[in-house]
Please model this.
Amino acid sequence: MKRSWLLFSQTVTILVAAWFVVTTLKPEWFDKRPRLASIVPVFDMSGFERSDLVAATSLSGAAKLASPAVVSISTSKAPVRNPHADDPWFRFFFGDQPNRIPQTGLGSGVIVSPEGYLLTNHHVIAGADEIEVQLSDGRQALAEVIGTDPETDLAVLKIQLRELPVIMLGNSDQLEVGDVLLAIGNPFGVGQTVTSGIVSALGRNQLGLNTFENFIQTDAAINPGNSGGALVDVNGHLMGINTAIYSRSGGSMGIGFAIPTSTARFVLESIVREGAVTRGWLGVEPQQLDAELARHFGVNTTQGVVITGVLQNGPGASAGIRPGDVIVHIAGQPIRDVAGLLAAVAALRPGEPSVIGIERREGQMEMTVIPGRRNPNGRSR
Model:
């Protein structure tokens, strides 16, 4: 009996010890309560790799893809020397004039071709005697001005370097308000900087910045020095050239403007192909149509642009356009405002016939016009 009791006690002791060890190391084996995931559906991210999380939340991929093609531009302009500085009498009365410090400027640019073509703003390089481009990899080169277009504030430069990083041009016409964008440039000369924001508005015009305005508005931080830099989408594709900000302090206030890639591509191809941007011209003075003007001219539409003046012997007059006509479409493109008319006329090729739809008191009609070549200093459309 005593032996049996001893065997029983030893067995119980071993079982209790085993139970203690198992409950300590594997408590879930004895936890019969239902798991949280079986009661409430949850999104558990613990099983995701860090690369998966970065791909879903980070814009680093777009920045890495686009940043190498964004360059810093430094310009210098020799000081203007007084023409009388060598005149002995001038020096007698006014003394030796101190040498003036050369004027310098900073901006940004975007490499858009393996051949070394760059896009930047006209105002970044205007009047410069020397333009130096510095790439993100540290290489430097002097740039040649291929051509400029002050009416859109764009310029095309070229550098002679091998194995250049090139940005991919996107389709800015597909942008929508709310799309995420990155602004890349060299603000205040501190070095290449990437900021993020969204498309705040599209088709901004009548800002008084350029003759042809069709800006992308963004709240991505754009500051002095960003001019000429890249505005890219989440895929790293170029959507615009940063050009201006609205600011009372000189710094970013969340309202920046970029020239869309569609405009930049047209200017780039025109300058490279022809050396200058060639635009159509009709020789008319337009005004936005409203209900009062529609009643005054006796037309049955409030959509379009009314012509208030026609240049004698100009392309418009030769085609039969007269004051009071309302232009409703040009070459199949609807016209809703003066900015749209200006852009549509500019897109016409000089010397090639185009169809214009107008509304008169007598009704609608179409006429064929042969546009002339626009004078950049002229005001009439």
Residues 59-80+106-277 form a domain with the Thrombin, subunit H fold (CATH 2.40.10.120). Confidence is low (pLDDT under 50) at residues 33-39, 42-46. The first strand starts at residue 70 and ends at 77. Residues 4 and 10 are 10 Å apart (CA to CA).
